[in-house]
Specification:
mainly alpha, single chain, elongated, 2 domains, about 85% helix
Amino acid sequence: MVLIIQIFGAMFGFFMFYITFLYLKRKDFVLRDFMIWGSVWILFIIATLFPDSLNTITESFHIQGAMWFFTIVSIVFLTLITFFVYRTVKKDHRKIERIVREFAFQRAKKK
């Protein structure tokens, strides 16, 4: 059963790495984005195929097992992603607000 989960996890990691590569080719990602996400997927593949390699990390942080480690890292990662998405949305919101305000002032001047 564990081998099936490892194979499924590795296939998922390779698929996501390929999707990330396609985004780079379509110019949706810059090289920095590709390097970050590519590293995430490569680390995911390594952790999926060789779960015993995490034992040194989990033992040094006194974490009970690999699943707890994945849970903690996932929560931290999702928090970081949420923060950066929020920051980007707020920045875009300010830009749109400025453009709409300028457009409204120009329309008001014409009347």
